[in-house]
Design brief:
With 205 residues, the chain is α/β, with parallel strands linked by helices. It has helices spanning 30-41, 59-64, 103-113, 126-133, 173-180, and strands at 6-12, 17-19, 53-58, 75-80, 98-100, 120-122, 138-146, 154-155, 164-165, 168-170, 189-191, 194-203. Helix content is 22%, strand content 28%. The longest helix has 12 residues, at 30-41. It binds folic acid. The site of folic acid has 19 residues, from strand 1, helix 1 and helix 2. This is Dihydrofolate reductase.
Length: 205
Amino acid sequence: MASPELTLIVAATRSMGIGFQGTMPWKGLKREMQYFARVTTRVPTSSSQIPQNAVIMGRKTWDSIPPKFRPLKNRLNIVITRSAPANPPSSSPAGSEIRVPSVEAALRYAQEANSSGGRIFVMGGAQIYEAALRHPAAKRVLLTSIDAEFECDTFFPLNLTGEETDGWKKRSREELQEWTGEEVEEGGQEEAGVRYEFQMWERSE
Ligand code: FOL
């Protein structure tokens, strides 16, 4: 089977802060959250026979999602937890998440479930982003760069600033629009008094 491509999706402050005390450091970025929901749900047209994309997350991130929104609808939810069985069921019960013990197992599961091309997203938190970034399949980061500081105790493990850093390159707004199917404003947008910009970064090696 061809190696699947992994896309990390994250919203982070200027200092790459992503969390505080088990929740997000900011409040009220509703349109940002809707962008997350649309982008992770939208299936590329060339593979519209694929029922859905997969979202991979750590157990703490799962716990941080309001119960009424979980599992995230119209997406295959894969939760990484050390307490998962070594041999996960070969299909998830309808309307529930699947639990696996590692990023490697999550990838294998997503790949089998989405064998004809559904997208695979990694949605955190820090420990899971870190493991995913060590994986060669991690090709892309969809970063929402929040132009503000909030108190954070959890950080994205890669500093994406400027145009190019650490083997990663920021793609153009047009390339982001093409890949996500979203139309995004040039120069970013503002919500609840906070400015942020949707960005796409890709490995440059
Ligand atoms: N990436 C980005 N860009 N923004 C985020 O807020 C974000 N959050 C996480 C991971 N990557 C992100 C992890 N945290 C929900 C809640 C928390 C969460 C991720 C998702 C959630 O409830 N999502 C619903 C939408 C709910 C709504 O419309 O308010 C979903 O269907 O995706």
